[in-house]
Amino acid sequence: MSSTSSSRSGLDRSAILMMAMDDDTAAEVFKHLSSRDAQQLGMRMAALRNVSSEQIEEVLREFSDELDQYGAININSSEHIRSVLIKAMGEERAASLLEDIFENNEGSGIDALNMMEANVVAEMIRDEHPQIIATIIVHLERNQAADVLLCFEERLRNDVILRVATFSGVQPAALAELTEVLGSLLDGQNLKRSKMGGVSTAAEILNLLNSSHEEAALASVREHDENLAQRIIDEMFVFEDLEKADNRTMQRILIELDNDTLAVALKGTSEALFTRFTANMASRAADLLREDMEMRGPVRLSQVESERKRILDTVRRLADAGEITLSGDDDEYV
């Protein structure tokens, strides 16, 4: 074997072998690999670039007759890898493994955008189609995404937030085309096909905006889809977030709640969150709450979640009425 081939690692040679096989044969090999080995081999297959026929023959000399038909391995190997893994593992396991494989081979362009000043990134992308902007936004770190959005005028910012909330990922068929469109912005790097975007991403970004921008964006989403807006709101503030509420807010919330609701809702909470409630109650009321919870014994999780939702509905009603503040980001007092 030549020095070129012998200098390659065993993993490199295995990847070349797998790429030279037909899908069914490669799938049979994958079936006998551990998850860790399958991921490592898949990542190396995805990283193969410009493997010549001569190199293939050196690695696979015992199969040289069969390799004549292949020539150089196509560098766009993702479809072959996907087909092999699906046949070997089924759709669900393959999808998860592909996520890990391609996430480790892509994204350096996005890393560069995360390191830039937000206003520079905003200038680079503001003239792109809002859907392309949304696609970039969901791949940025959340703080960077929020800062970039703040650089846009309100109409564009709200449009992008709506698209982020309804983002369901880049379809494989459109990935190459989208990558080409974004190539000049991202230095030719591919975007991840990961489970990014959607309601949770929109909520995380909105949580980092000040209240006026947050309210404007939610109003825009509500005009498009009231249910979607509510889902975002539900993601933005969860029961555990009450641990961060100030004393005045907690005291105002407690006025609206009865002991039965609290005794169920606080089952299974962290000690810190439980203390956040009891610290803002009269000592006698706190003692009665503890006794009530002990006497009730185990409670169905569905009941706990129902009572927590009741509390969150109360919290949102008070926040909408301006009676409490859920975030101190604005630093405004009246």
TrEMBL record:
SUPFAM superfamilies: FliG. One of its GO terms (molecular function) is cytoskeletal motor activity. GO terms for biological process: bacterial-type flagellum-dependent cell motility; chemotaxis. It comes from Salinisphaera hydrothermalis (strain C41B8). This is Flagellar motor switch protein FliG. PANTHER family: FLAGELLAR MOTOR SWITCH PROTEIN FLIG. InterPro entries: Flg_Motor_Flig (IPR000090), Flg_Motor_Flig_C (IPR023087), FliG_a-hlx (IPR011002), FliG_M (IPR032779), FliG_N (IPR028263). Keywords: Bacterial flagellum, Cell inner membrane, Cell membrane, Cell projection, Chemotaxis, Cilium, Flagellar rotation, Flagellum, Membrane. Residues 220-326 form the Flagellar motor switch protein FliG C-terminal domain. The lineage of its organism: Bacteria, Pseudomonadati, Pseudomonadota, Gammaproteobacteria, Salinisphaerales. Residues 9-107 form the Flagellar motor switch protein FliG N-terminal domain. Pfam families: FliG_C, FliG_M, FliG_N.
